[in-house]
Amino acid sequence: MKTFAILNGPNLDRLGKREPEIYGRATLADLERALRAEFEARVRLEFFQSNHEGALIDRIAAWADAKVDGLVLNGGAFTHTSVALRDSLAGAKLPAVEVHLSNLYQREEFRHRSLTAPLCLGVITGLGFEGYHAAVRFLLQRG
Ligand code: DQA
Asked: Helix axis angle, 83-92 relative to 53-65, nearest 10°?
């Protein structure tokens, strides 16, 4: 069975409490449950969230060394700022899909730029949790 990694960056541990008008009322645990419920028969899912840039980078390197089969990445605010996160993706060479819960293009201009998107196969933005489901489906059907 394949293994896909789901990486969530800073403040995504606060889902459900944080700006619910933007991110909704469901929690990160709800997301994990929903993804496992849809996909557990077809793919092994590994989840990691951190508020710390270095911890995210260490985890991407560990997943690269473990040769996981795909990565779904929501880098949170580091998406827009972190050359280090971008470099870790470039080094990992994992098939990756970038996901954002909110529609970045309806928001502040500083969110319109992603440093990590060029290292990903595609980007899904604005579809809430469905973005993660669609990303996993895409990676599965991609083979
Ligand atoms: C986010 C969008 C980012 O701009 C923001 O910093 C986040 C969440 C999203 O999922 O919509 O923390 O990645």
From this structure: 0
Q: What is the pTM of this model?
A: 0.97
Residue 3 Cα, ligand 1 centroid: separation in angstroms?
A: 25
Order of strands across the sheet with 3-8? 44-49, 3-8, 70-74, 96-100, 122-125
CATH number at 130 reads 3.40.50.9100
Kindly give the number of the ligand 1 atom that is closest to the alpha carbon of 75: 13
Question: Active site includes 105?
Answer: no
Ligand 1 pocket, CB under 6 A: 11, 74, 76-77, 79, 100-102, 104, 111
In this predicted model, what pLDDT tens digit does every residue of 21-59 receive, in sequence order? 999 999 999 999 999 999 999 999 999 999 999 999 999
Q: Tell me which residue range forms the domain holding 135.
A: 3-142
Active site residue 52: no
